[in-house]
């Protein structure tokens, strides 16, 4: 079965509101497929899921995009329908429209902040003060981190004057505190400024709180094994073959044989360029896949993966400890609709599949 056929199958499952695990498996292995529109189709999987009205399924798929830099929520259909247009078609499921509207606004605010368009950012916060401490699942930075990276002390002071706007200075990006993010961006003036405003940033984390982020010895060992296996050239194709019946691409020997049979330097250079480009894409693909198999709290490969209400998958022990003291997502800081945890059987399948491709 070709990649195109696999994508068509996943789109068909989403279109019929059936077999979501099949869709989740496909996007877990190929996050970029969420917004690809196959030949002879009008909608991508993203559009089908939005039309289904299932916000929980949408959250799970969006959580898989956090390292996919090419992902864009506002991806139109072939007929140029927007995600808002599609969400608005379902009057019977208003929660989806509300969620899409919220995500678009958050996206706009964070894009303005990244581009230092502070006036536009200010106007959105004025309408939605809570946005200062929230972000979409696929974004790395909260607003405060963009401010830190831009050394925008004056703008930060202005935003604090907005009614109802109160920055949470404990928010982290990649588990790093705001002052460390500022230093990472060479913005030492902002780091010093924010440390004076919030001295607790200089304090060591409470050992009890820090235990949330500790991976078990078993998880660390498993992470090392899978990292090593990721170095195997065809690991992605092998996983495709084992999990969703994907094709196996040409081997290195086949590629080299083709190169040796080429008649001109131009042909050889063209093939070498394609091989080099393919290696870059494969490396990015492996990075994204590994990220999707890694707990965002422990930073180790899962041993007991569970899905929370925010759509993210966590190591059970880590998220359980988090939920003892928090009712917000550790990845988006948005309030969780519930504290239920459900096993992620897809991630378990993928991790188990690594054992069969050794």
TrEMBL record:
* Molecular-function annotations in GO: ubiquitin-protein transferase activity
Enumerate the Gene Ontology biological process terms: protein ubiquitination
Pfam families (alphabetical):
U-box
Checking CDD domains in the record gives: RING-Ubox_WDSUB1-like
Q: Gene3D superfamilies, from UniProt?
A: Zinc/RING finger domain, C3HC4 (zinc finger)
Report domain U-box positions: 288-358
Q: Could you tell me which SMART domains the record lists for this protein? A: Ubox
Which PROSITE patterns does the record match to this protein? U_BOX
- The name under which this protein is listed is U-box domain-containing protein
């Amino acid at each position: 079965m070709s990649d195109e056929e696999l994508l068509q199958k996943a789109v068909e499952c989403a279109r019929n509101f059936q077999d979501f695990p099949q869709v989740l498996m496909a996007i877990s292995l190929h996050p970029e497929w969420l917004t690809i529109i196959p030949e002879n189709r009008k909608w991508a999987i993203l559009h089908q899921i939005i039309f289904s009205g299932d916000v929980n399924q949408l959250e799970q798929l969006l959580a898989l995009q956090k390292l996919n830099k090419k992902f864009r929520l506002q991806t139109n259909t072939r007929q140029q329908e927007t995600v808002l247009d599609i969400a608005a078609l379902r009057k019977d499921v208003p929660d989806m429209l509300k969620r899409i509207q919220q995500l678009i606004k958050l996206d706009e605010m964070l894009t303005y902040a990244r581009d230092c368009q502070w006036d536009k950012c200010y106007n959105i916060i004025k309408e939605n003060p809570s946005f200062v401490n929230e972000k979409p699942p696929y974004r790395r930075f909260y607003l405060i981190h963009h401010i830190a990276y831009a050394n925008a002390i004056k703008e930060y002071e202005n935003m604090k004057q907005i009614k109802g706007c109160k920055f949470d200075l404990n928010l982290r990006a990649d588990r790093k505190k705001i002052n460390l993010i500022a230093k990472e961006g060479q913005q030492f003036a902002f780091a010093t400024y924010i440390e004076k405003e919030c001295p607790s940033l200089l304090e060591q984390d409470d050992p009890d709180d820090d235990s949330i982020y500790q991976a078990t010895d078993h998880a660390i060992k498993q992470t090392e094994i899978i990292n090593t296996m990721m170095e195997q050239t065809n690991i992605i194709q092998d996983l495709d073959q084992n999990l969703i019946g994907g094709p196996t691409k040409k081997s290195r020997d086949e590629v080299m044989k083709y190169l040796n049979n080429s008649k001109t330097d131009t042909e050889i250079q063209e093939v070498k360029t394609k091989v080099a480009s393919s290696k870059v894409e494969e490396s990015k693909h492996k990075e994204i896949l590994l990220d999707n198999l890694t707990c965002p709290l422990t930073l180790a490969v899962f041993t007991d993966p569970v899905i929370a209400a925010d759509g993210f998958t966590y190591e059970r022990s880590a998220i359980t400890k988090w939920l003892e003291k928090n009712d917000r997502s550790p990845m988006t800081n948005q309030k969780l609709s519930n504290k239920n945890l459900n096993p992620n059987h897809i991630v378990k399948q993928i991790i188990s599949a690594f054992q069969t491709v050794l």
